[in-house]
């Protein structure tokens, strides 16, 4: 991605300078005639559908949209579905756990330009980002129209979405209905789609705009011929913000042009979005290289009891030094096996990243801070151990140092605006002032930001071959499938469900992805609905996979943390036909 970054940024800059010389005319049926430079942005937020209209040719393009400048979204404003129909097929496939064979390009089909070269193939996630319509064709996937209707009816989707035959690019729908349809998509497929769609701004049709939108916009692009102007296009994007808000963007020109032209206006509005911090967690072993002697309150000499820490505290080390920490309950005082005190922190991923940004760097140059946020997130994803669904890492100069108090708003903003973004395909290291192959210098990053480089361009200087994507996306390559495991689990899980039905705490989980564990022991990741095992060749391998599946099946009950129960149940399922009590 980064190898083409300079060119994509040049295209973006040129797009933002060019006066769009295409007439909007009747861009969207039902809308009043627009100026030739008018773009539309709408969202469904707090039960209200709102619309902004703005002229990209205005001299004040640097001025962002303000919430108070919105008006109610007219019911008459319509849009073609364009490529957005693929997003609804994607969501249905995810929720129904439908196997999707890769699409193989035969050559000669003009539509395959969005898919692959002749003889190549494309998977579901890449097909969504690249907008490969051939992959998502309902006939190829043998989708059942009756089950499609049942699924979207249960989701309370608009009537048109319940008709599988309506999933065509030319289908026109009210924008308000499209926003309602996006909101109706259940959480699991919506989150899966949103994680994949982050890559639209880093390597898809919106490449080059991640510097302005950050990762807050997760949208499927669309481009269609303009019926009012032969040879011209209309386009835009539709999807969600990081907090799940449904959004739609439309205007004259193709999707890449519309995304680029709209970015200076929309991006400031998106900075007001509160980014949730519940998709991943990080456990931090504080002061891991310095043994703690005692933990005292802010005043006095009384030792603090074990348990959650709330307030200001002083930590005395064996070497005689002292440090101050602040906690609102996210830090906890425990004891190691020898009885020595130790401090552990549990944070949301963005809280953790913000603390690293402030401890290892600063926020005087916001773009450098965002680059450091991506590097810090990449580091913990690559090097953190897995512990009960969280990443675990030391607070240490040999890993990453972590601020033992709440980060500033500026540091948290750097983390939120790059939410979930990581570099994949390369090992990530950084240092205060030493640059090296694969190692970013923080001082050099600040100098680059001061010279006008954006965070993605700063990252490209150190890691030109890296892929910038969400660590929760299959595109990040962090889930290598175990041969035959998912099919084996798909066959056995229903049989196990009948045997475990009625067992205290049992709930049938969604069929998880089965990924190859890279290091350490097999484990289950309930947050991402995955299990990690080594292989599926022997009876012990099958027991290991059953073991991790049982963790998911009892994840909301104390039994799910009882390793003896889980292991006993796994062996019973594999070696006998007995029911589970």
UniProtKB/TrEMBL annotation:
Residues 347-424 form the Sporulation stage II protein D amidase enhancer LytB N-terminal domain. Pfam families: DUF2300 (PF10062), SpoIID (PF08486). Residues 109-222, 438-558 form the DUF2300 domain. This is DUF2300 domain-containing protein. It comes from Paraburkholderia elongata.
